[in-house]
Amino acid sequence: MNRSEFYRQRILFITGFLLVMLFSVCEKKGTDPEPEGSRPFVIENMGVRFGPWNRDTNLAGDFYFTSSLTRIMNAFGTEALDPQGNIKILPTMDFYISEDAPVLAVSEGKVVRLVYQEENNDYEFSIQSLNDPDFDIVYDHLTDLEIGLEDSVQPGDTLGHPRPLYGQIGFVEIMVNNSETGLSYCPFVFFNQETRPLYIQKVTQLMEDWETFKGDTTIYNQQNHIISGCRIESIVTY
């Protein structure tokens, strides 16, 4: 074997060895669990249970249809009056459900803030995503909490119950915030893409059933929603 042939084979051997090592490292790296904070923030449900309107019981999942209510839910971006009588745009989705119904975690995370509100005798708390800590979900007007400060939750976990209003009706607000952008978002912006169409249909059906129950097809003006249940995509957080 001449010298040039020797060096050629040596270069081929070294190149092959390096490729095998690189493949081995990449393969091992691919099997390692993802570090905390590296996965995307995803919403898995709407925090309340939907169902078709039963005309005999006037229940639609956990929603109770009663003529004393104007709306069965407030869409994200709805105009409302604040305590001073000024118009504000709601950065939340608000639901009127049975007072004994569970309020569910819409995503994973950890409870990082918990406040008792004496004026309403209820709680407001924030659950920060562990997948993407820029995001947190604010749940307002809950009672009978089943979670505490620093607790971790998974989507679908029961957090508590809505604040009772009257006639077995409860009320809860849910808000999706991002600390980096300073915005609150329509939940469907970050919804699980596989189940998003199903939940959009659930929200649409609830609004349509409510309008039928009230005999008024203009309550929600869904043609003005960019996504069912959301009049806008995002708004500056208050």
What key phrases describe this protein's structure?
eleven-stranded antiparallel beta sheet; 2 helices; alpha+beta; 238 residues
Model description:
With 238 residues, the chain is of the alpha+beta class. The protein has a single domain (53-236), classed as Glucose Permease (Domain IIA) (Distorted Sandwich), CATH 2.70.70.10. It is 20% helix and 31% strand. The protein contains 2 helices and 16 strands. It has helices at residues 3-31, 196-214; strands at 53-54, 59-60, 63-64, 73-74, 79-81, 87-89, 93-98, 103-104, 109-117, 122-128, 135-143, 152-153, 158-166, 169-178, 183-185, 234-236. The strands form 3 sheets. Strands 4, 7, 8, 9, 10, 11, 12, 13, 14, 15 and 16 form an 11-stranded antiparallel β-sheet that branches. Strand 2 and strand 3 (63-64) form a beta hairpin. The longest helix has 29 residues, at 3-31. The radius of gyration is 25 Å and the shape is globular. The chain starts with a helix and ends with a strand. The model is unreliable at 11-31 (pLDDT under 50).
Task: Tell me the β content.
Answer: 25-35%
Domains, number: 1
CATH superfamily: Glucose Permease (Domain IIA)
What proportion of the residues is helical, as a percent range? Answer: 10-25%
Q: What's the SSE pattern?
A: HEEEEEEEEEEEEEEEHE
The structure class reads alpha+beta
What coarse outline follows from CA principal-axis ratios?
A: globular
Mean pLDDT over the full residue set? 88
Q: How many angstroms separate the termini? A: 79 Å
What is the CATH level 1 assignment?
Mainly Beta
Question: How many distinct helices?
Answer: 2
- Total number of strands: 16
* Main beta sheet strand tally, sense and closure: 11 strands, antiparallel
Assigned CATH architecture: Distorted Sandwich
